[in-house]
Design goal:
3-stranded mixed beta sheet; mainly alpha; about 5% strand
């Protein structure tokens, strides 16, 4: 599907009205190679993996604590009063809730940390792509390494957004979303 989108995009670029085939300059980058070869991306990934390992260890420790609580309960169950049993079950359930919250917070923390580490790098890459494209006279730069085959640079001359919005705004929306 992604290759189909890429092919359609490239075909559409060549079929634009008024754009002669010989006048358009298209280049590409390979983001997969950038990820492998840029040291700052590797360093960011290592930091993220270290945090992930730390949180995984904390998760294992919490699970082990719960397993120990359950084992202690089972060993003492016959000797405990109903009040103490209820108290231990309540403590176990509270610990289970803390584990769930820890996991949710960990996911949020990892996503935020991933963004904080990678966003400045991606901004730097995008600035460099734009500079190279403009210096070399490229109309479009595609990403051959990404799964989506995204356009990572395009000359403003080819931006159809305003025309598309005008067309959509001038066409009434039919009932039912069709």
């Amino acid at each position: 599907m992604n290759k189909l989108v890429q092919c359609l995009l490239v075909a559409a670029l060549f079929l634009l009205p008024g754009a002669a085939l010989g006048q358009m300059k298209i280049g590409f980058i390979n983001s997969d190679q950038l990820k492998e070869r840029l040291p700052e991306i590797k360093a960011a990934q290592q930091q993220l993996e270290l945090l992930q390992q730390q949180r995984a260890q904390e998760d294992e420790d919490r699970q082990a604590k719960m397993a120990q609580m359950e084992e202690n309960y089972r060993k003492q169950e016959m000797l405990l009063s109903e009040a103490r049993k209820a108290e231990m079950r309540s403590e176990y359930e509270a610990e289970g809730q803390r584990l769930i919250e820890f996991r949710q917070n960990t996911q949020e923390e990892l996503m935020k940390r991933n963004f904080d580490l990678h966003n400045p790098i991606f901004e730097r890459i995008n600035t460099a792509i734009k500079a190279v494209a403009e210096e070399e006279g490229y109309d479009y730069v595609l990403d051959a390494g990404s799964a989506g085959g995204a356009v990572v640079f395009a000359k403003d001359d080819y931006d159809l957004t305003d025309k598309l919005l005008a067309r959509l705004q001038s066409t009434p929306v039919k009932a039912g979303g069709n």
